[in-house]
Amino acid sequence: MVKIESFSVEKWMDQYEHHCEHNIAETCCASISIDQLRELSEDKGREIFQASKPLTYGSIRGSDELRSNLARLYSAKATNPLSPDNILTTPGAIQANYLCAYALVGPGDHVICHYPTYQSLYDVPKQLGAEVDLWKAKAQNQWVPEIAKLKSLIKPNTKLIIVNNPNNPTGAVLKRPFLQELIDVASEHGIIVMCDEVYRPVFHSITPADSGFPPSLLSMDYRKVIVTGSMSKAYALAGIRVGWIASRDPEIIEQLAEARHYTTISVSQLDEQVAAYALHQNTIHSLLARNIKLAKTNLELLEKFVLKNDDACEWVKPLAGTTAFVKFHREGIPVDSVDFCEKLLKETGVLFVPGNECFGEEFKGYVRIGFVNHTEIIKEGLDKTTKFVRKSLDDVKLAT
Ligand SMILES: Cc1ncc(COP(=O)(O)O)c(C=O)c1O
């Protein structure tokens, strides 16, 4: 039987997210309803659901409309357009990531995974029998791991390198020159690179004019690249459970499609229709503009909070995505982040995620803050957190 460790961040959210007043743990841009989605469209008369369409399994690999819209997005800045045939839809990116590991690695294989990150990215390959090495990023290097370290981790049986860009929980970005080096190393050894890009394109603090602005890894000149994406985060539609896998390598797509027949068959037709509507040219621009504006507005509030409490916390300001990793301490000694989060929740109703519990023991004192929820929730929650820090930080246990 497969040994399954607790998926700590999902367990924490399951336990607390519906029992808090200010959810500042959420990683989705503030979710929208179908009515709000329609309001964002330039063509409000267009149907979202085709009510007369029989609810068969639909197109097995994903609807033509959804895959064409996705292919258009990946083709926009790439030298070569991407065909819809290079895309498979999935029930959320959680399943996209699962499938990549399920189809590609097993006992005898070695996997290297960017860290810290979303736990399933490194734990699923482990559950499937692969040996996993963590490629660690440190705060002092702006949460960017070192290429020299990657080179030293590679073994003859390294099958897959997994990265997450932009990163959850740090909000760091692996920039274009770094991605080029990563591809150079992987291609030298013929290793597949999988990049979880669910936080693309929430770029709140870096612009395409920046020379380091990261393209999708799919636009780099290497066929053995897989990217995964999602409607949940940047598109504020977690409730439809739509994610995807894209690769320029048809063999990889076929391998993943074979595995997907066992786990998925197809994705809900209703969900895919909503996703296709959201990604349509008529809607996507205003939807993303809303979410990036929300991220910028709320990040300003968070930055003020960090400055106001700079005797008790520190961070590397995130460049993209919906999360920040903030370290709380008392006179330089990290707090016990679980005790901090539990007391904060009890006293104020504010929910954060404890870093050392959900992202790795070494992240003592860290909390993950999801700051792209509604501005009022963030503002009131951060104000209450400032009061808590002033009044109760002395009562919080220190990390051991
Ligand atoms: C990095 C990362 N990948 C994947 C997922 C899962 O996303 P989805 O809702 O598309 O399944 C999450 C959710 O938090 C995430 O942070």
Automatic annotation (TrEMBL):
<keyword id="KW-0663">Pyridoxal phosphate</keyword>
<dbReference type="InterPro" id="IPR015422">
    <property type="entry name" value="PyrdxlP-dep_Trfase_small"/>
</dbReference>
<dbReference type="InterPro" id="IPR015424">
    <property type="entry name" value="PyrdxlP-dep_Trfase"/>
</dbReference>
<keyword id="KW-0808">Transferase</keyword>
<dbReference type="GO" id="GO:0030170">
    <property type="term" value="F:pyridoxal phosphate binding"/>
</dbReference>
<dbReference type="InterPro" id="IPR004839">
    <property type="entry name" value="Aminotransferase_I/II_large"/>
</dbReference>
<dbReference type="Pfam" id="PF00155">
    <property type="entry name" value="Aminotran_1_2"/>
</dbReference>
<dbReference type="InterPro" id="IPR004838">
    <property type="entry name" value="NHTrfase_class1_PyrdxlP-BS"/>
</dbReference>
<feature type="domain" description="Aminotransferase class I/classII large">
    <location>
        <begin position="49"/>
        <end position="376"/>
    </location>
</feature>
<comment type="similarity">
    <text>Belongs to the class-I pyridoxal-phosphate-dependent aminotransferase family.</text>
</comment>
<protein>
    <submittedName>
        <fullName>PLP-dependent transferase</fullName>
    </submittedName>
</protein>
<dbReference type="InterPro" id="IPR015421">
    <property type="entry name" value="PyrdxlP-dep_Trfase_major"/>
</dbReference>
<dbReference type="GO" id="GO:0016740">
    <property type="term" value="F:transferase activity"/>
</dbReference>
